[in-house]
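Recap from last week: sequence in, structure out.
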Amino acid sequence: MRRSTRVTVAASVVSLLLFGSLAACSGDSDGTASPSASSDTEDAAASEEPTAADVAALEGVEVAGDAGAEPTLTFTQPLTVSVPTARVTSEGTGADLAEGQILTMNYIAVSGADGSTQGTTYGAAADHITLGDASLITALNTVLTGQKVGTRILLAIPGTAATADAAETPTTVMAVEVSAAKDIPNRAEGEAVAPVAGLPTVALGDDGAPTITAATGEAPTALVVQPLIKGAGAAVTAGQTVTFQYTGALWDGTVFDSSWENGAPFTTSIGTGAVIPGWDEGLVGQTVGSQVLLVVPPDKGYGETEQGSIPANSTLVFVVDILDAS
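Predicted structure tokens:
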């Protein structure tokens, strides 16, 4: 459901942290997307151990600056690593970090080739990740596991070449600071809403994961927004960062993506064009804790271009649990 183009240059850098579901749901700014799983190359890179040279290169990076302020990174250029490599530069003193928490973080990313800034959240909106999310680079999950709020880390991510004749992009060096951690529920919680005839039906597993059964008949041509569970939280507003569980299927019931299967909720900005129009229009105004059935016609989804396992001009069905908004 994502678009690949972020609202700011700084926010675009965080996509480097992603292998798997979030990166795979990304697309072009014109609405194209690929919901398929991560590539074999990405999976291999995510699982390889850093070499002694990788570790030494990151150890050579000096970080200067007070906590809460944008740091300065100094290192011998060019800096390269063969696989994602991370280390703690300053241990935090706050609450323990736990798998499944939403972490608020600030970072600056610089080019390993010349030290130029590629993006920063300092002075702008902080970013968020879910600790333990299987779509994150393994090195990031590993280095943050067992740490506390306030921890500062360095993460180096190798450059890649899109094609054999393309120039290789430089290694990216990121200084990341965790400023907050928040526990959130794993599923929608609220008052059940009676289903509406003619729409796909939803059955929930013991853990809350939905199973979608296709409806008969023609797909609607207008966006359908049908709450299944009404949460007691505040209404979601445009511009908020919202955390969701979701399952996405074609009108015939074929599932193409699911945060439940991916292993972690999905966090994104809503109402800003970061996701498809059907999500922006359908989820703004819904309350936290709700579960919402969205039937998204092609013009509110991915349009006329085939997207991996999503055929062109597809009507999409989503069951979305709204877990948190801030």
